[in-house]
Amino acid sequence: MNNRHIAAGLAVAALLAASACEAPREDDTKSASRPSPSADKDTPRDGAGIPKDLTGQDRAAYLDGLRSINPWFVTAKGEDDAIDNGVNQCSGLDSEKPIRTAQQRFGTPDHPVNEADAAKINELVRRHICP
Questions:
Q1: In angstroms, how far is the first alpha carbon of the chain from the final one?
Q2: Cβ contact 63:82 at 8 Å
């Protein structure tokens, strides 16, 4: 590396360091103190009508349904992970390939999910998790 490259690199680093140390602009401080438009929504899940925590009968029915398809879906990483997969699958239900999305989300190379099981998973997710 020649001296010009080193000098250019040092100049860029100095500029970046100097810009990081600037005081916030008035516009920045005003926007930071304003609540966001979605302040009444804690998470994207809330805005979509998806419950924060799956509880009661829906939780039990969803987990029992997964166990009936394949107990591994619940025992591999636990109930909370199985529920997170279901909550995340809500967005997959509206995709072009909901079966494929369920196969990817719930399966692994060692535990692939066939199309029939993926369809059952999607039905459980629709019935117990998604609005």
A1: 60
A2: yes
Contact 130, 121 (CB under 8 A): no
Listed residue (120, 31, 18, 16) closest to 73, CA to CA: 120
Q: What percent of the chain has pLDDT over 90?
A: 52
33 and 40 in contact (C-beta within 8 Å)? no
- Find the mean pLDDT for residues 15-39: 46
* Closest alpha carbon to 116 in 128, 106, 129, 127: 106
**Interaxial angle between packed helices 79-93 and 115-128, expressed in degrees from 0 to 180 and rounded to the nearest 10:** 90
What DSSP state is assigned to residue 106?
A: H
CA-to-CA distance for 83 and 17, rounded, in angstroms? 44
Closest CA to 65 of 12, 131, 8, 117: 117
- DSSP string of 7-42, one letter each residue: HHHHHHHHHHHHHHTSPPPHHHHHHHHSPPTTTT-S
Mean pLDDT of the chain: 76
Least confident range from 34-38, 56-60, 72-76, 106-110: namely: 34-38
